[in-house]
Q: What sequence folds into this?
């Protein structure tokens, strides 16, 4: 009886230590976001003079000033541009990657392993290596200052999403493909009717990651977009900072907070699919 009581006490103590550690770690990880949200309600003077997360006085006008931007172009335009770029790029990346992954996972062709290895190696290729050649190419065909250089390449498949989906497809029994072929389905019908509906977790995981990467993308729009009317949210936030004049830090933090709303909403709605998609990846070779 004494041993049972001792074990129960030890388990409770360990649970308390674990939860305290997790809460402290969570606070450390969330502190930058909490700090940004708190500063979105402060004046510039209070931002640099008060480190507390609780503002002395709430200034909601930071959001109205930030949204108005320079009055001729408001953040409505920037958010529209970001959603346009992010949604089209995400659709192209996810669908094209699923089709390519189906080819690698189910169709045997000459050089299959070689091309799969080449695709996989591109995961280790830094964007800076292809940045200049791509810019020269898109400049020569007249795509500069349009969204085409940012969106069109996404429709050729993304290596990480292809790898993720290939591993998921390999976990689907091939007997389903064979049964469909007996019923008269071709490879395209097998993909649309059998494979595609059964890789939903992988598709949603790819969608979430693609949405995050495109929404936060700064370098791509910086290279190809020159006119403010085409700027995304990430570029617009950079335009707030002006070394030659006083910077409205309250408005910057306010718009930075709003820019996180789509990302947080996507994560809260689909977080279970991220875990499911990543856990399933690599289960079968």
A:
């Amino acid at each position: 009886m004494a041993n049972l009581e001792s074990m129960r006490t030890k388990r409770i103590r360990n649970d308390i230590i674990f939860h305290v550690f997790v809460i402290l770690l969570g606070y450390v990880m969330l502190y930058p976001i909490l700090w940004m949200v708190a500063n979105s309600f402060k004046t510039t003077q209070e931002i640099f003079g008060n480190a507390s997360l609780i503002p002395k006085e709430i200034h909601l006008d930071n959001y109205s000033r930030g949204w108005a931007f320079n009055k001729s172009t408001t953040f409505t335009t920037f958010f529209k541009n970001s959603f346009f770029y992010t949604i089209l790029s995400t659709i192209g990346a996810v669908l094209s990657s699923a089709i390519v992954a189906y080819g690698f996972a189910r169709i045997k062709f000459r050089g299959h392993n070689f091309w799969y290895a080449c695709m996989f190696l591109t995961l280790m290729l830094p964007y800076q290596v292809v940045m200049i050649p791509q810019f020269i190419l898109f400049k020569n065909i007249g795509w500069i200052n349009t969204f085409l250089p940012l969106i069109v390449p996404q429709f050729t498949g993304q290596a990480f999403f292809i790898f993720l989906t290939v591993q998921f497809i390999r976990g689907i029994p091939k007997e389903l493909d064979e049964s469909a072929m007996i019923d008269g389905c071709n490879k395209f019908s097998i993909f649309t009717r059998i494979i595609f509906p059964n890789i939903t977790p992988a598709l949603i995981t790819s969608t979430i990651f693609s949405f995050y990467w495109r929404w936060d993308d700064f370098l791509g729009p910086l290279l190809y977009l020159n006119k403010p009317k085409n700027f995304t949210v990430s570029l617009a936030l950079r335009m707030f900072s002006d070394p030659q004049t006083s910077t409205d830090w309250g408005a910057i933090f306010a718009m930075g907070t709003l820019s996180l709303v789509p990302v947080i909403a996507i994560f809260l709605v689909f977080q279970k699919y991220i875990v499911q998609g990543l856990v399933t990846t690599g289960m079968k070779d």
User: Anything to note?
Assistant: Confidence is low (pLDDT under 50) at residues 281-285. Residues 2-39 form the longest helix (38 residues).
